[in-house]
Amino acid sequence: MKNTARYFALFREQAGCASEPVEWVGGTAADLFRLLAQRHESLTSEAAALVAINDEMAAWETALQEGDEVLFFPPVAGG
Amino acid sequence: MKFSVTHTAIDVDAAKKAVSDDACGALAVFEGWIRNHNEGQAVERLEYEVYRPVAEKEGSKIIDEAIERFGVSHAICIHREGLLELGDIAVIVCVSSPHRGEAFDACRYIIDQTKVRLPIWKKEHYVSGVSEWVNCEHCAAAGHSHGDH
After folding, report:
1. What is the mean pLDDT of residues B19-37?
2. CB atoms B111 and A79 under 8 Å
3. CA separation for the pair B14, B76 (Å, rounded)
4. Of B67, B32, B25, whose CA–CA distance to B48 is shortest?
5. What is the ipTM of this complex?
6. Is residue B91 within 8 angstroms of chain A, CB to CB?
7. For residue B51, which residues of chain A lie inside 8 Å, CB to CB?
8. Are strands B74-80 and B3-6 parallel, antiparallel or unpaired?
9. Which CATH number does the domain B3-148 belong to among 3.40.50.300, 3.90.1170.40, 2.30.30.100, 3.90.120.10?
10. What distance separates the 2 farthest-apart alpha carbons in chain B?
11. Best mutation target, B136, B138, B145, B146, to test chain A (most A CBs within 10 A)
12. What is the tens place of the pLDDT at every residue in B69-128?
């Protein structure tokens, strides 16, 4: 399955890029993050991280579809 | 727009005017300022990164929730992005309603939800020359909650 991963703030610095195409077996948003964390050693899983799919906030357990753009948000700190 | 993001200084008077209503006897305003210290470090300036497509959508949802939950008349929230200096206003929430109780409650709800739900990040630049992303896991580890900010 083909997806696009996008990284923000701390995650972008850890991954060393703002986005990348991913070809993989498919699964949930959490599965994809785990896979990417193996590829980018410094990308660390954070309990408070959030995820969005195609610009909509989503649950980590959401099953991804072909072509979905997955946005990985490190712990937020607005205000 | 109920929730918006801006690169330029927040106009407090314009924000208050946006919720003005002759039927309202109360206006609650929260301003978040850039302070000169965080967790023992002297802060020189601060940088906000905002992912607008989701922040604006989700931010508008928070405003709608506050209006529905507390029954207030009008509410807006404006958040800065980019580089901010000490004393700058990072965020403003304005809520108007016939009476003060619900205005205070809705204002608190909006700022609290804004801090935990929106894709907004801040990088603090310290006087020491070091800069660091501030994150709430860090806050949790330090033993305080979002309400302490």
Report:
1. 96
2. yes
3. 11
4. B32
5. 0.94
6. yes
7. 8, 71, 73
8. parallel
9. 3.90.1170.40
10. 51
11. B136
12. 999 999 999 999 999 999 999 999 999 999 999 999 999 999 999 999 999 999 999 999
